[in-house]
């Protein structure tokens, strides 16, 4: 620990013993200038004719207004050295502070006083001069116009304590939430900060702040539960506000990278509890920005507010989700009809509604469901078309996105795969210090894949065992759903490929990813991750993928496909003909008796579309035909009919028709494998 020696300005002998004259106290701190909110260690060393061990040592601390903050608090004693660690509160004023040490042994006692500087990090990164007119602006909310001083998040929280309490229980603060829609959990709270790992930057909590720059928490993602003062309201309620971590020359890591180069990385200031220190970043805000004016002009979140973080998820614009980027804040009508001023002119919050700071909506690869999900039908009803055939699609198994989002990544190239085995230098990484990422394959204007999705999914969590699927891949996120089960719809997805370390135990190793960023050595990052997790043994690098729902970037209705872009009119359209892969989705996996129309009645011939229409009019469910052959009856045949009514006699096809008219399904009488 580097100590800064401070000359004692006052030394007072507390004993009449002549021994006191041969003694002094050398006073020091471990930091030359102490930032508000930072920990400082005070050290007082007995110099001269002291006995081998102090009998007592206390410290008194006074702030810049000479108010006593600590009074005669005991210090830790080692021989003739006394130490005391103290956190400078966040709600104090900067200036010259005073600390007094009082040391004693069996013979005499002595007190000494010294000063130290407490620095306001915001003032240390001076705010530019206000606009030339010198005045504050009038915001849209009258009560906010009484703000005359900006004191970080406390500026907002002082009045908005209820809202702060709501945020403390939100996904945006905790990076975790309930998981009722995961098939591999019991609903427990999980998320990016709890069990989270993904196919992009892998393990966020190992990134030493790289992944926290977007976090609403002003203290990054400290391991302890957030407090009200950690709620940085401006992250969502101001499109002007930008912030940064305070670099700490005492928080560094010197590494040798794959090129044999030695480089020292400087990280943000973090106290012993894991709290990062964030301050306004005036270099990224318009010239002349005044934080009082920023606080006065807060507003409900706009699309720009949301996209400041979500657009650059995964490390770059359009990188992660593939259906949104920075341009989505003001897109052309061909990029996103919903968000375009020339289209529906909506914003993110129109669909992702806020319920006490909990946000609606969930995709396939997201663990938590914070509140109710959102759907197209909330605005467009279940029968949005004037054409009955089109409404049949909307009411059935085809999600709106299938027809109304023909491509994704329309505003920029999105990442399709990332290979950590091939390091690529990115000079913008690590807050402009540069870093290595895996080789990224990116492309724009991509055709989606299509899967069945019933609203639930499998998403891998740290500590779970996972096996290779039939392709030899680790499926880290996968939609759950089945053809024609009455709950699932076909949805478009982006499939993201990556490389993940699979431990011999069957668990994925969460890499300490900052070591990859710094050195370009993914194996080293994995080994560091194993150390952090207490894992030993061997691992292998395995191909992995994740399914990601595409639901933004809706086209205007004139771009919707015609019938012949999906169907060739035969009822058995082969994969590759049109938009949907019908065989892959299970449409044509039907028994021969269904194809010959003899499963329920005698053989008949009807044009494919007319056949579907007639069966729909009879309220026959999709699963009645898109099914396997029946294997038997739910009860012995001689008692099956009498279990519901008296024995009756019908022709084969007439009996089936009557049962369908009563709303019965095949499984009411038949068993299936």
List strands and helices in order, with pairings:
Blueprint: E1 4-6, E2 10-13, E3 23-29, E4 33-35, E5 39-48, E6 56-62, E7 68-74, E8 76-78, E9 81-87, E10 95-104, E11 109-119, H1 121-124, H2 154-157, H3 161-168, H4 171-174, E12 177-179, E13 187-190, H5 234-237, E14 243-245, E15 247-256, E16 262-268, E17 278-280, H6 291-296, H7 303-310, H8 348-351, E18 354-355, E19 358-359, H9 377-380, H10 388-395, H11 400-404, E20 414-426, H12 429-432, E21 435-443, E22 449-453, E23 456-459, E24 474-480, E25 489-503, H13 513-519, H14 522-533, E26 539-549, H15 592-595, H16 608-617, E27 630-633, H17 637-640, H18 652-661, E28 670-672
Parallel strand pairs: 4-11, 20-25, 24-26
Antiparallel strand pairs: 1-3, 2-11, 3-5, 5-9, 6-7, 6-10, 8-9, 10-11, 12-13, 14-17, 15-16, 18-19, 20-21, 22-25, 23-24, 25-26, 27-28
SS-derived structural category: alpha+beta
Please state the average pLDDT score: 88
Poorly predicted tracts of residues: none
What name is given to the CATH topology of the domain at 4-119? Immunoglobulin-like
How many angstroms separate the termini?
70 Å
Report the sheet with the most strands, covering strand number, pairing sense and barrel closure: 7 strands, mixed
Number of strands: 28
Number of helices: 18
Strand content: 25-35%
Please bin the fraction of helical residues.
Answer: 10-25%
Query: Quick one: CATH superfamily of the domain at 4-119?
Result: Macroglobulin (MG2) domain
For the record, the CATH class of the domain at 4-119 is Mainly Beta
What coarse outline follows from CA principal-axis ratios? elongated
CATH architectural type of the domain at 4-119? Sandwich
- Radius of gyration (CA) equals 33 Å
